[in-house]
């Protein structure tokens, strides 16, 4: 795991509030015989905080009457809440709760990961006012989250709510930057001029040039493009990817991004569509300068449908195969082939990983996992079961 260069922005003050109840789950210690290193046994409080589990979204409102009002108006339906992406700073986890269905009162929350806490409180971040649907000065639906070395939290907000029901575009898509130290909004990037009405903005990466400039990359799966935004000069553009990138793919697909930082100081963006059979990359320096044409490289052929779930902010990409609970690590310094895909985690609860997250304080990686397919098909009882678990193994 590596750190980035620092930068600063102007600040706007905000406040914090909100609570969701979670339960903790234990873990079995890894042994030399454990292939994956982490296996979950009976539920109970884990004093080491290695596994945290919760179901749906049980929020604690400022008062009972507020909760009753949210429920009666349909703005709070616990089983419609699911966390899909996360980042960790110290002992705090920040979770993205996309508004896939109605009834999600907050689309970005934070929770305490300190050891010994059995019930985890969720607070809307950075405040209640920033969660208001229809208010274009607030977040509408956060689908990805990135933390840079200056502990600035970057968010991809599609502006579209109820995407699994009847999608409604409340506001233009945006990228938000929030200081985790002050909880103040530092930057809001409106992507309206860089996207289209048909855009499907899915993943976010934040890059730093050797000169210190900050660049934001956003995948637009529908338009076969990557949006590049230069934060320093407040200007962006779109890089249209070669047609070969979508060869053999489906009409509606997922375009994954993974920003790799090599030990020599260079950065490279890896990307692939879920249903295609090849992985591609491009050096970040070409994206920063707008010289992406003809610079895309084919990394290799995928053996199956590859779901990229994160990086270690260094050379490694973590992924799983579609529908599989097994997580692998690929060191990008090695050839892209199965022999170099190392198993590092497997859920024994049939949950699927949606994000691999660096946990710097504990010098490890964590996995955010859930029964996401059941949620997508609306086959839950009280809601999706979600976990933040420690990845134990060679990563």
TrEMBL record:
| Signal peptide (UniProt feature, chain positions) | 1-30
Swiss-Prot/TrEMBL keywords? Secreted, Signal
What Gene3D superfamilies does the annotation carry?
TolB, C-terminal domain (2.120.10.30)
Highest classification ranks of the organism = Eukaryota, Metazoa, Ecdysozoa, Arthropoda, Hexapoda
Its subcellular locations are: Secreted
Q: Which GO terms describe its cellular component?
A: extracellular region
- The name of this protein is Bee-milk protein
Q: Which family does it belong to?
A: Belongs to the major royal jelly protein family.
| Species of provenance | Glossina palpalis gambiensis
Pfam families the UniProt entry points to:
MRJP
């Amino acid at each position: 795991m590596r750190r980035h260069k620092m930068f600063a922005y102007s600040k706007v003050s905000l406040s914090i509030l909100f609570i969701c109840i979670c339960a903790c789950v234990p873990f079995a210690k890894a042994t030399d015989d454990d292939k994956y290193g982490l296996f979950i046994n009976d539920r109970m409080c884990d004093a080491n905080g290695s596994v945290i589990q919760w179901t749906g979204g049980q929020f604690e409102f400022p008062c009972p009457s507020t909760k009753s009002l949210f429920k009666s108006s349909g703005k709070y339906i616990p089983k419609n809440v699911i966390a899909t992406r996360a980042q960790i700073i110290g002992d705090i986890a920040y979770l993205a709760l996309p508004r896939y269905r109605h009834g999600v009162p907050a689309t970005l929350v934070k929770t305490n990961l300190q050891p010994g806490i059995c019930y985890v409180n969720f607070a809307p971040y950075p405040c209640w006012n920033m969660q208001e649907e229809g208010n274009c000065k607030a977040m509408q639906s956060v689908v990805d989250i990135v933390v840079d070395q200056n502990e600035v939290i970057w968010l991809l907000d599609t502006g579209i709510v109820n995407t699994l029901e009847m999608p409604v575009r409340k506001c233009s898509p945006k990228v938000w930057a929030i200081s985790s130290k002050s909880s103040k909004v530092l930057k809001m990037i409106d992507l309206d001029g860089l996207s289209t009405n048909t855009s499907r903005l899915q993943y976010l990466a934040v890059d730093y040039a050797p000169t210190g400039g900050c660049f934001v990359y956003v995948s637009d799966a529908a338009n076969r493009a990557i949006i590049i935004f230069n934060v320093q000069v407040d200007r962006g553009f779109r890089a249209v990817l070669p047609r070969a990138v979508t060869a053999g793919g489906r009409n509606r697909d997922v375009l994954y991004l993974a920003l790799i930082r090599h030990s020599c100081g260079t950065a490279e963006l890896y990307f692939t569509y879920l249903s295609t059979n090849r992985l591609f990359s491009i050096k970040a320096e070409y994206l920063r300068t707008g010289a992406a044409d003809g610079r895309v490289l084919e990394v290799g052929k995928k053996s199956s449908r590859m779901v990229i779930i994160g990086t270690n902010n260094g050379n490694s990409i973590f992924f799983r195969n579609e529908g599989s609970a097994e997580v692998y690590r690929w060191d990008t310094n090695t050839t892209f082939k199965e022999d170099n895909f190392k198993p590092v985690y497997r859920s024994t609860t049939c949950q699927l990983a949606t994000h691999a997250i660096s946990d710097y304080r504990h010098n490890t990686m964590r996995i955010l996992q859930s029964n996401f397919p059941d949620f997508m098909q609306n086959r839950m009882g009280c809601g999706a079961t979600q976990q933040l678990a420690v990845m134990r193994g060679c990563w």
